[in-house]
Amino acid sequence: MKNIQIAIDGPAGAGKSTIAKIVAEALQFTYIDTGAMYRAVTYEALQRQIPLHDEQALTALAKQLNITLQPSSDGQLIFIDGRDVTAVVRSQEVTANVSEVAAHAGVRQLMVTAQQKLAKAGGVVMDGRDIATHVLPQAELKIFMSATVEERAKRRLLDNEARGIPSTLEALKQDIARRDQFDSEREVSPLIQAEDAVFLDTTTLSIEEAAQAILQLAHEKM
Ligand code: C5P
């Protein structure tokens, strides 16, 4: 059995993190949620009232922050300078602003280097937007996961309900479509499927079915 790298990319709400966590647990690999790192920088920038268009200031902030990840029974905890920010980086304010922060090349460079270090030893399932194309172009298994906007918004609605976050299907659809467009059209590392990635449409798949499909592909590479 090899300690391979598994890259999972795709738009918001495709099921990446839920499915990646199950795959990582089944293989006893480390799960790394790269979106949480961009969210952490965004959260701190909002706290410090740094303008989100100011690439230089945001890059300096990202350089200064000590962002660390820790596996947990729930997937992953994230810390900024030792403070647990796992819950607060999921706020609607951070979600609404993270794509703007993640579009800056200076911020991305720092995050990508940190992510490459985390994945170096292998035995990782990493999810994000540019994992197969930029972070781990040598990953043994690359998955591009998607689902219709309608289905992704429905999943987010259920997720929000479970967390007690008020939202509506229409607002979530709009937010997802806006983030898709922003992430896919940005200049630096846009969200695109790598040529050698396997496309997985999760619209009609259960979480378990999608995880099993990836596990089967992973076993073929191990
Ligand atoms: O995965 P999640 O929804 O938490 O990601 C939040 C945002 O972070 C995405 O909408 C995207 O703008 C950015 N992101 C990115 N590259 C990654 C992971 C996330 O640009 N590898």
TrEMBL record:
Domain (Cytidylate kinase): residue spans on this chain: 6-219
The reaction(s) this protein catalyses: CMP + ATP = CDP + ADP; dCMP + ATP = dCDP + ADP
Assigned EC number: 2.7.4.25
Protein's UniProt keywords contain Transcription: no
Keywords: ATP-binding, Cytoplasm, Kinase, Nucleotide-binding, Transferase
Protein location: Cytoplasm
Gene3D superfamilies attached to this UniProt entry: P-loop containing nucleotide triphosphate hydrolases
Chain residues that bind ATP: G10, P11, A12, G13, A14, G15, K16, S17, T18
Pfam family, one: Cytidylate_kin
UniProt record, GO biological process: nucleobase-containing small molecule interconversion; pyrimidine nucleotide metabolic process
GO terms assigned for molecular function: ATP binding; dCMP kinase activity
Entry GO CC: cytosol
Family statement drawn from the similarity comment of this UniProt entry: Belongs to the cytidylate kinase family. Type 1 subfamily.
HAMAP family noted in UniProt: Cytidyl_kinase_type1 (MF_00238)
Protein name: Cytidylate kinase
Protein's organism: Lysinibacillus alkalisoli
Gene name of the encoded protein: cmk
